[in-house]
Amino acid sequence: MSRDHPARLPERDRPWMMRTYAGHSTARASNELYRRNLQKGQTGLSVAFDLPTQTGYDPDDELARGEVGKVGVPIAHRGDMAALMDGIPLGEMNTSMTINATAAWLLALYIVAAEDQGVPQQQLQGTTQNDIIKEFLARGTYAFPPAPSMRLTADTIAYTVEHVPKWNPINICSYHLQEAGATPVQEIAYAMSNAIAVLDATRDRVPDSRLEQVFGRISFFVNAGVRFIEEHAKLRAMAILWEELGRDRYGVQDTRHLRFRYGVQVNSLGLTEAQPENNVQRIVLETLAVTLGRDTRARAIQLPAWNEALGLPRPWDQQWSLRIQQVLAYETDILDYPDVFAGSTVMEGLVEELLEGARAEMAVVAEHGGAVEAVPYMKGALVDSHRERLRRIESGEQVVVGQNRFVETELSPLTADAEGGILVVDPALEAEQIEAVRRWRAERDQAAVEEALAALAEVAGAQDSDLNLMIPTIAAARAGATTGEWAQTLRQVFGGYRAPTGVGEAAAAASDGELSQLRGEVSRLQEQLGRRPKILVGKPGLDGHSNGAEQIAVRARDSGMDVVYEGIRLTPAQIATSALQEGVHVVGLSILSGSHRELIPAVIDALRTAGVTAPVVVGGIIPEQDVGPLQQAGVAAVYTPKDFDITRIMRDIVELVGAEAGASSPGANGSSANGSA
Amino acid sequence: MSAEGAALGARLRERDLSAAPAALNLLESTAPADREQAAALLREVSPASLGGEAAAHVIGVTGPPGAGKSTLLSALLHAWREGADEPEGGARTVAMLAVDPSSRHSGGSLLGDRARIDFDPADGGVLIRSTAAGERLGGLARATRAAAQALAAAFDIVVIETIGVGQAETEVADVADTVAVVVQPGAGDVLQFLKSGIMEIPDVLVVTKADLGQIAAATGRDLSAALRSLGSSSTPVIAVCSLPPPSGIGELVAALDEHRAGLDLAARRLSARRAGALSDFALEHGERGLRALGGRRAAQALLDAQEPGMEVPALVAALERSMQ
């Protein structure tokens, strides 16, 4: 080893920022959790908001039913934000908020909470995720159509660069793309294309002299899967592309601004429900992808918990993940060396390969007119990739230990307690939050709120307005408006939106033996029914994680059924009306947000009231102990992540519909599976 | 169970909209027992039973994928349903039949239009039904024709939405009172199809995405010029924007109404039923069946000799009798 390339750093590196993605139930309960986590050595906060907050509804909205406080904390107004940050010095804290469609609003509430603590906005540090394109592609918590959504994003960037200079106004997320099935090449290409769309939109909203700074404030939020060598190469490729983009497209010269900065949450898609203890070693290995190589090491890391595929993790589960980070940072020698991959021909080769693929795919997106216009194309491509991944797992080509190989297991003591090793949110909390937001509205200065919202509507409605939407947004936050009111005001101006589902664009499956056999069974069922078997795939509630529902819809089509798939965010009434009008033989519901105990019975109720007798099957993250109550509520079958063989699920459904038709009237006609109104 | 078809037909005739889903289940079924029931249902809503043609306006909406049909239909639906909250609000009841292509590999289909049409689930005056085109390439689902006829007895407006230009548009023209072809700005293929006569001249042409400005206006001008050169300057070309703030929707509603008002409805419906019967007969019995009748022209002559008030299954039965 020559002296020019010392094997050790003169001084050990400082560890990355350690966070835990957390928040549930209420602002007060989450505040306690945050304080405890900080005592345990966590160095930053990562706020998980519940789905109503993420999509812009108050707890008392019909669409919020069953979702309040489930996957995160409900924040309806400045009082909630103040309670959430109570006793946490916002001038020193670094807070990351996973918030997108309503990012401008939550940032405004945070700014107002800081004002209450006497902290000026110039001092605030943290991140708003604020990446709307990936919400259309993969995560589903959008609220407005693409064009006004991009304007909101651009305005938050323009505002923070000027007034909250240490804030990261956007995290371009490739994380959720991998969760939706993206290959490394797709992850790189779509994230970079997304960044281009954001920068182009922002360029129009800031003075030219600010563009370099804007570029420097853009950070990424990436994923890391268990193939951790290739995953590391992916990050190196992203760093190269980012610097290129800055220099060539945006004329950035300052090398500090050209640096590829990212935070990470490692892969959840690959975490299994079967033998969940194995997820711990998966998480450790994935973390190596983002920590081993010094030149592209993560700035901030948050790790999923070992039991995410089972339900919501408890504080203890999250502590385990924090300790993984601490062992890596403080016990191992990972921070002692310069980049350990420098000069590796294998790594260079992998990076070259990924760069080539990503550049080609970026060109395709550009041909579609950029990331916003290419959303339907990218969505279809992701659905296809995800299907290919599932096919490899189903066929055993891709080994998942404990799930499709080495499945023999002892009973796990980790899941032996009454709740099955997960957090259960008290359903009574929702009623309390509804009560609380109504009290808030009754006690505030109503005239001031109305005036602020009217001002917001005016700025939003002005065509080609130079006015930044952050300004009336902060004023509305200060006046005491609620999350639902802010979003509703903008919905009225911008209109609602439904993102493409991607399933229509998905290519037909290659025929394999099992699928052809299933098609034969579907044909026989068709003769029995008089009509082609028809299935409604529905996602009730606000949960936008539609990957599972999409795969079910595509496979049902490929097995020869007629499939009605309406995308996400449906009320029980909408599902019931569709099932009735469409004359479906079976209804499949998908929920991953933990709201199944409230929403599934509500949907069944609505279906039966409408006169639909078709059987209902449910898929999602459903804890073992909830299966019985769901069956009692009338669910015919429940599928969880351990049921990875989708063709088998289809076969079950075909049998179920056949048995139902046979039972209700022998020699049944097409209308027997469905009440004649 | 024997009276089920007739009972459903009678309910539709009395404009009981809640009978529609079960009626459609029956009309879509290929089971022999159901086919008999379906014929009984259609008898109840035939012009003979109704004492005239069904009052609904049957509108075909067709166009290439991505032209913005679903968004347009959402906007139209809202316009037609305006005033539904008041007893004399002037709202019209609407049934939409969305026809999607089927997968040639599996026979299955993904019916995605419903997702893009924004509707109020509590509004009993709206029905949306998706159907797969099945084995019939580019055309209508087998049951769509019968469904349109049955629903026309109960609803004020029946929309048949299909994808494509050319064959699909021709088939819709055989069923609908009014055909609207929807194109997006810059869509050169429709212009070419129109000029070369591959597609028939529609009753109304709609150019979507008027918010695109220049390019939308240019497309409208090109289409108008092409229509003039084909000697059809009366076909309205309407620019609409379905995104907020919407525009052109009221104009489109008026153009559709106007076309319908100027129509010889009895003649158009009669020829629709006869064309439908011929198509169903050919599907069932193939070229051999047609030869047994002495060819397509002879079959047409046979149909023309039947009572004008007969419904499609009765016309098919008449052809089948002549076959023997």
Topology:
The complex is a heterodimer of chains A (677) and B (324).
Chain A (H helix, E strand, L loop, with lengths): L16 E3 L1 E2 L4 H13 L5 E4 L2 H5 L22 H7 L9 E5 L4 H14 L8 E4 L4 H7 L6 H18 L3 E2 L2 E3 L1 H5 L4 H20 L7 H7 L1 E4 L5 H21 L6 H4 L3 E4 L12 H14 L8 E3 L12 H17 L13 H23 L7 H21 L32 H16 L2 H16 L8 H10 L3 H12 L18 H17 L4 E5 L8 H12 L3 E4 L6 H11 L3 E6 L4 H14 L6 E5 L3 H9 L2 E5 L6 H19 L13
Chain B lengths: L3 H10 L6 H9 L3 H13 L2 H4 L6 E7 L5 H13 L12 E7 L8 E3 L1 H4 L9 E7 L11 H8 L5 E7 L3 H7 L4 E6 L4 H9 L7 E4 L6 H16 L7 E3 L9 H13 L3 H28 L3 H9 L7 H12 L1
Parallel strand pairs in B: 1-5, 1-6, 2-4, 2-5, 6-7, 7-8
Summarize the structure.
Chain A is an alpha/beta fold.
Describe it for me?
The complex is a heterodimer of chains A (677) and B (324). Chain A has 677 residues and is an alpha/beta fold. Chain A folds into 3 domains: 17-373, Alpha-Beta Barrel (TIM Barrel), CATH 3.20.20.240; 438-494, no CATH class; 513-664, Cobalamin-binding domain (Rossmann fold, 3-Layer(aba) Sandwich), CATH 3.40.50.280. Chain A contains 25 helices and 15 strands. Chain A has helices at residues 27-39, 51-55, 78-84, 103-116, 133-139, 146-163, 175-179, 184-203, 211-217, 228-248, 255-258, 278-291, 315-331, 345-367, 375-395, 428-443, 446-461, 470-479, 483-494, 513-529, 547-558, 572-582, 596-609, 624-632, 646-664; strands at residues 17-19, 21-22, 45-48, 94-98, 125-128, 167-168, 171-173, 219-222, 262-265, 300-302, 534-538, 562-565, 586-591, 616-620, 635-639. Chain A has a 5-stranded parallel sheet with strand order 1-10-9-8-7. A 5-stranded parallel sheet of chain A has the order 2-3-4-5-6, with helices on one face. Chain A has a 5-stranded parallel sheet with strand order 12-11-13-14-15, with helices on both faces. Chain B has a 7-stranded parallel sheet with strand order 4-2-5-1-6-7-8, sandwiched between helices. Chain B folds into 3 domains: 1-52, no CATH class; 54-263, 3-Layer(aba) Sandwich (Rossmann fold); 267-323. Chain B is globular. The mean pLDDT of chain B is 87. With 324 residues, chain B is α/β, with parallel strands linked by helices. Chain B contains 14 helices and 8 strands. Chains A and B meet through helix 20, helix 21, strand 12 and helix 22 of A and helix 2, helix 3, strand 3, helix 6 and strand 4 of B.
